[in-house]
Specification:
globular, four-stranded mixed β-sheet, 7 helices, single chain, 9 strands, Rossmann fold, five-stranded parallel β-sheet
């Protein structure tokens, strides 16, 4: 692929526990889409079996702040106190240099910033859960975080849900099979692969 390749950007945002990661993994498995996952950088510690350079780029808070000062991020956010997340510009360049389209699993503000910077190339999708109680149930079932962290995520959910109208499309993840099919159709259409 030429260095000039500028692919599409697929942004998936939602409150924690909405199922966006499951949807993103499903789309990555569809070879016809030619997607590559954008690995976010974070200042938090790895959770569970997370691997540096695969799940996230784990960098120290000080290094993260230095990269912000050097304008190395496409978008970044202090999602929770002293917990930074962001997308390095080099990550999108890396994926485009392979001739692939970029898919993001990212918080709502970061997702909307990418849409703002690349309005024509980006399809921004909000994944909506059935309700807050279902989110709470899913987060507890993961068993990865303390009650305090889960409470912080649940407290943030109504604010995130309020941003749904700002996205190009809203996928209601009430039934996973239906949600997966709907997102496949959206990606097909945005890439110009749909048959109709």
């Amino acid at each position: 692929m030429t260095k000039d390749f500028k692919g599409k950007l697929f942004v998936f945002s939602a409150p924690s526990g909405s199922g966006k990661t499951t949807i993103v993994r499903h789309l990555l498995a569809q070879e016809r889409f030619n997607l590559e996952f954008s690995i976010s950088a974070t200042s938090r510690e790895p959770r569970g079996k997370e691997i540096d350079g695969k799940d996230y780029y784990f960098i120290s808070k000080d290094d993260f702040i230095q990269k912000i000062k050097k304008d190395e991020f496409l978008e970044w956010e202090e999602v929770y106190m002293n917990n930074f997340y962001g997308t390095l510009k080099t990550e999108v360049e890396r994926i485009w240099s392979q001739g692939k389209h970029v898919i993001f699993d990212i918080d709502v503000r970061g997702g909307l910033r990418i849409k703002e910077k690349f309005p024509e190339e980006t399809l921004a999708v909000f994944v909506k859960p059935p309700d807050i109680n279902e989110l709470l149930r899913r987060l507890k079932n993961r068993g990865e975080e303390s009650e305090e962290k889960i409470a912080a995520r649940i407290a943030k959910a109504p604010i995130e849900l309020a941003t749904a109208p700002m996205f190009d499309k809203v996928i209601k993840n009430y039934d996973l099979e239906v949600a997966l099919q709907e997102t496949e159709d959206l990606v097909d259409e945005f890439l110009g692969l749909s048959k109709n």
